[in-house]
Task: structure prediction
Amino acid sequence: MPLIERRVDASEALPDDLEILRKVVSGCRLCALSKTRTKTVFGEGNPHATLMFVGEGPGAQEDITGRPFVGRAGELLTKMIENAIEIPRESVYIANIVKCRPPNNRVPTPEEAYTCLPYLMKQIELVSPRVIVALGATAYHYLSGDRSGITKVRGEVIDMGAYLLVPTYHPSYLLRNPSAKKEVYQDLLKIKRLLCENC
Ligand code: URA
Result:
């Protein structure tokens, strides 16, 4: 069975309630990342958000606090949301491809990502956002199934049926390459326009 169908299949068995799903995730032992995590990082934000951000996986601060994007990259993400899109961080939903920190912040393995993906698929189904922003290549790859590099696809609007997918650079990349912030700013303005199309 193709991977995309398998992960949708697996998410069908999960609860149709975000808080119950959070509890399921907090006890998850399905992959090796569960052995080294401090806390699972389920995701947070408006359960009815029209805009959702998906990162790669928790870092050190996220692992300690159990909250997504609270370290330096998170501070930048918050500024991106509040200064460019001009909405409060609390009004969006933020999650990751994997819910447990990969040791030394390495990229999650395909096995880890595909094992964890049904949780994210269920979150997407329940929140039902209009637009999902894939932060970086890992999020884009697992959400779209496309292996194109992030530089090639950033700023595109991909119709995924249930939502529009917009890939852009990960805030950690922007911390290392501040000159790329202007491209992300353009992507964020495009996202703001997409959200306002019918308002
Ligand atoms: N980077 C991510 O991809 N996710 C987080 O939650 C924090 C940093």
User: Anything to note?
Assistant: The two ends are 40 Å apart (CA to CA).
